[in-house]
Amino acid sequence: MLAITVPGRPAALSILLSVVLAASGCTVAVAPQGSQTQTAARPVISGTPQKAPADKNFATIVARVEPVAEQVCRATPPARNCDFRIELDRDPSKPANAYQTQLANGQPLLVVNQTLLNDLRNADEVAFVLSHEAAHHISDHIARQQSTTEAAAIAAGLAAAALGGTSSTIASAQELGAFTGSRAYSKNYELEADSLGAQIAYHAGYDPVDGVAYFSRARDPGDQFLGTHPPNGDRIRVVQQTMARLTRGQ
């Protein structure tokens, strides 16, 4: 068990949250070197794809990745909106970023900004980034993250109340619980999206192993407790393992 200390929060809340986490089983599993990660989704498309053009053209890559992502989305229960909208944010002042969200009508939106696109060296890397973001939607990570956050906040608030906490202490416990819950499984979600994203990119005609090589150059977040992203080495390894299974026909 790890005690969590957050600046500006009473020590009692840190102890309380440690108890809540232990009771709710909020752990982050990272695949050790040489093992097969449990985050890998089963392939839903069979066959060997036709190799995509090597040109790093955003529109061309979108035209190949989007239909594959939609096919995987529709083949993965439960039913959801699989009409992906993919955009390039051309504002050069923004730091490198890619993300997925949902519009008010439930349509999934994937965004890559120009700064990140400039950092990506080839079509394989662009395709992997798009496929990774599509995989977040297919895996329902927004809804799952919200559920985890709400559950942790409720559990922390109930525990604080049971210990005789004041309304202020309960509110603080709920806030800290929500913070922790939002990060409890985020590393696993990233690895899940890497694995499924590798399959999408592969079936779109790109090389995910070359695509994930971006993380050999990107800043490594390390294995920080309550961090939102796993170490870059784990992400590269997950993609390599996924592709080894996929190319063996498993």
UniProtKB/TrEMBL annotation:
Cofactor(s) essential for the protein: Zn(2+)
Cofactor binding annotation: Binds 1 zinc ion per subunit.
Any GO BP annotation: proteolysis involved in protein catabolic process
Keyword Hydrolase among UniProt keywords: yes
Key word Signal present: yes
GO molecular function: metal ion binding; metalloendopeptidase activity
Keywords, alphabetical: Hydrolase, Metal-binding, Metalloprotease, Protease, Signal, Zinc
Family as reported in the entry's similarity comment: Belongs to the peptidase M48 family.
Signal sequence region: 1-22
Protein name: M48 family metallopeptidase
Phylogenetic classification of the source organism: Bacteria, Pseudomonadati, Pseudomonadota, Alphaproteobacteria, Rhodobacterales
Domain (Peptidase M48): residue spans on this chain: 65-241
GO cellular component: membrane
